[in-house]
Amino acid sequence: MSIGMILLVAVAVLALFGALQRVLDRMRLTDRQALAIVAAIFVGGWIPDIAVTPTFSFNIGGAVIPLAVCVYLFVRAGSAKERFRSIAASILATGAVFALGRLLPNEPEQFFIDPMYIYGVVAGIIAYVMGRSRRAAFIAGVMGLLLADTAQAIVNAAGGLPFTLRLGSAGMFDAVVISGILAVAFAELFGELRERFQGGPVRDSGFDEDGLIHGEGEAK
């Protein structure tokens, strides 16, 4: 079982025991919705890639489901500012992962760790720093990887180089899962610390950084 699958199982267990209630509330997700998403990604990751062309295919668990979750969270964003942060963080994460792809070796055997894991960690960190909210962080973490992979394929095609775009497949599946989970984990950990030091959530035009209306309970 890959590290991405292991992380999904860990998230499912935490959700079952109610340990993620605060995080899920901030992301406008219920426990059942979270478990359904995790299950869909997990099962989708085992389904063979769907080939669109000889050079392009995608994985349901590694691309389709995470992308659908990103769209849902973007629509549910609490403010225009949060949506802007999501887009800006996604662009920066894409650029960082794309640049790393030029520097790191393509074959895992040529490096002490699978580069895909590094992409996931880097995208997750940038997603948190720029996204701030849990929703924006998750969106940027996932989209940064998917967009960087797509951008590399486009650059190769434009340059007449051979390419195969397997969106969300194999190692990229793990990277997407790592990035999304890490971004939200950072946002929760450091966001909680920041709120404690400030005496409450960040205020922004009637919403805190995760889109909760002032005075509104977190339970959704």
Largest sheet: 3 strands, mixed
From the helix content, strand content and strand pairing, which structural class follows?
A: mainly alpha
Which term fits the overall shape? globular
Residue share in β-strands: under 5%
Provide the succession of SSEs. HHHEEHHHHEH
Features:
single chain; 220 residues; mainly alpha; globular; disordered C terminus
Task: Annotate the secondary structure layout.
Layout: H1 3-16, H2 21-26, H3 31-46, E1 50-53, E2 56-58, H4 60-75, H5 80-103, H6 115-131, H7 134-158, E3 165-167, H8 171-198
Give a brief rundown of this model.
With 220 residues, the protein is mostly helical. Helices cover 66% and strands 5% of the residues. The protein has one domain (3-198).
Write a structural description.
The chain has a 3-stranded mixed sheet with strand order 1-2-3. Residues 203-208 and 212-220 have low confidence and may be disordered. The relative contact order is 0.16. The chain has helices at 3-16, 21-26, 31-46, 60-75, 80-103, 115-131, 134-158, 171-198; strands at 50-53, 56-58, 165-167. A hairpin with a 2-residue loop joins strand 1 (50-53) and strand 2 (56-58). The chain has one domain (3-198). The protein is mainly alpha-helical and 220 residues long.
